[in-house]
Write a structure and sequence with these properties.
The complex is a heterodimer of chains A (about 170) and B (about 300). Chain A has helices spanning about 5-15, 20-30, 35-50, 60-80, 80-85, 100-120, 125-135, 140-145, 150-174. Helix content of chain A is about 75%, strand content about 0%. Chain B is mainly α and about 300 residues long. In chain B, α2 packs parallel to α4 (about 120-160), α4 (about 120-160) packs antiparallel against α5 (about 165-190) and α6 (about 200-220) packs antiparallel against α8 (about 250-290). Chain B has a domain at about 160-303. Classes of the chains: A mainly alpha (about 170), B mainly alpha (about 300). Chains A and B meet through α1, α2, α3, α4 and α6 of A and α1, α2, α4, α6 and α8 of B.
Chain lengths: ~170, ~300
């Protein structure tokens, strides 16, 4: 059994290295900055609680994705029904902290629209698209979700199509 | 814009945000974790108080009905006050547990993780985690204690009753049935708690299984209400009638009251299953269907 000290350093190291995963999941599941912060904390706590059970059978990033997505799905279920639907007109403050001039501002605008489109997807499909956007292979996605690689392929084709439809309007705007 | 370009932008966005540790924001994150923990503790304390009030009320009613420690007229205002306190505590618990989103927590999602070994975050979270486990254990103990008190009261009465003491013994055994069943159920539920590091589908499947099981339990609440009703009738109206040798109005009123209370409890549990658990089950089923793209999962849930 690992000592508490080594678990602590493993936890802090992973949190620093994979903080982007927590931010991505928080930004994809929560609209308001305060909610994102709340979810971020929940995920960090859940990683710490689950860490002693990590067997090293998968990559740390895959394991962290599992914990974060499970926590986010539970977090979303615990919210009231009227809060479940993320209104499309809200700005994800996580990704756009301040207005930026020129090209950078335009890129933030694209990200804002992308977040809106991702959040408009049903929670299950949202989980899949986050993993795909992050460049994970079908095998890794299958490992995280528990689906077979074939099922992942089928589901992702459907989800990509839906995302493209949502973003079509955005691309026209841009 | 191609999907690959979107992927690149997505990656770039978070690599840009994944840096710049700021100790100030880190402290804020810790403070929020502590605040969250404090709120959780408040909820647990309120729940404990509420349970204690209910328990005292039950004991008081039993003491008035069986031992006649105080006249019914004197006991009534105390019972009404107790119910009022319990209602206030229930509302306070609900309000406290609903306010999840923390005020002023805007910057924390931009917070960096602490550098290895230099921050108190891991130990804080570990302490919070063990507190959480302790609170769950405390809640289980409290419920087991409440059941034990009821059984003890029945046994105590059996020991001291002059007539028909055997009815108290039988009631004690009958009361023990739901208590033991509840503890066994709680033990099994703990063993089946989903682990967040399992796959999404695995966690969903286990959660669905648990909720279905809980719905079955609540919809078939007779296993809990039945023994309580039978035990209550035995040591209340039936014993009174046997002692007096006749069925009088009090016995009839007592029987009707017990049956009405049991019916209310049964109805409450059934509506809890319908209003709270069924929608959650449907939500989970839908989520699972969304994820797995399996048409079989889209079938309506069965209890």
């Amino acid at each position: 059994m690992e000592s508490a000290q080594s678990l602590e350093s493993q936890f802090t190291g992973w949190l620093r290295e994979h903080r982007g995963i927590l931010l991505k999941v928080a930004g994809s599941f929560a609209t308001e900055a305060a909610e994102q912060a709340d979810l971020f904390q929940d995920m960090a706590m859940e990683i710490w609680r689950s860490l002693p059970g990590f067997k090293g059978q998968s990559k740390p990033s895959t394991w962290i994705y599992r914990v974060c997505l499970n926590t986010a799905l539970t977090w979303q279920r615990s919210k009231r029904k009227d809060e479940l639907q993320s209104p499309l007109d809200r700005v994800p403050e996580l990704s756009c902290s301040s207005p930026l001039p020129g090209r950078l501002h335009e890129e933030d605008e694209i990200m804002r629209k992308l977040f809106q489109a991702v959040r408009a997807l049903p929670a299950g499909e949202r989980s899949l698209i986050i993993l795909l956007l992050d460049g994970l292979s079908y095998r890794e996605i299958a490992e995280i979700t528990g689906l077979t690689e074939n099922n992942v392929g089928v589901a992702l084709t459907r989800v990509r199509k839906r995302l493209a439809e949502s973003l079509k309007e955005v691309r026209d705007e841009l | 814009m191609s999907f690959e370009e979107l992927q690149k932008k997505w990656g770039d966005q978070f690599s840009r945000q994944g840096k710049a540790p700021d100790p100030k924001i880190e402290m804020e994150l810790l403070e929020q974790i502590r605040r969250k923990e404090r709120r959780f503790r408040q909820v647990v304390i309120l729940m404990a108080l509420k349970d204690a009030v209910f328990l005292c009320l039950c004991c008081l009613m039993l003491a008035i009905a069986v031992f006649h420690v105080v006249p019914l007229a004197k006991g009534r205002p105390v019972a009404v006050a107790g119910v009022a306190v319990a209602v206030v505590l229930t509302v306070a618990t609900r309000r406290c547990s609903q306010s999840r989103v923390l005020p002023g927590a805007r910057k924390t999602s931009q917070a960096s993780s602490p550098a290895p070994g230099d921050g108190p975050l891991p130990s804080t979270i570990r302490r919070d985690s063990s507190r959480f486990d302790a609170m769950v254990l405390w809640r289980d103990l409290r419920e087991a204690f409440a059941g034990s008190v009821v059984i003890f009261m029945a046994v105590f009465s059996a020991w001291h009753a002059n007539r028909y003491a055997s009815l108290f013994w039988v009631a004690a055994v009958i009361f023990a049935i739901p208590v033991v069943s509840f503890l066994a159920y709680r033990y099994r539920t703990l063993a089946l708690r989903p682990s967040t590091d399992d796959s999404l589908l695995g966690v969903l499947t286990l959660s669905i299984y648990q909720i279905r099981r809980q719905i079955r339990l609540l919809e078939n609440i007779w296993w809990y209400v039945g023994p309580c009703l039978a035990g209550g009738l035995l040591i209340g109206p039936i014993r009174m009638s046997l002692i007096r040798g006749t069925i009088n109005a009090n016995a009839i009123v007592g029987t009707v009251t017990f049956i009405a209370l049991s019916w209310g409890l049964w109805k409450l549990n059934r509506s809890a299953a319908q209003d709270r658990l069924r929608p959650r089950l449907e939500q989970l089923e839908k989520l699972k269907a969304d994820l797995s793209n399996d048409p079989l999962i889209n079938q309506p849930p069965t209890s």
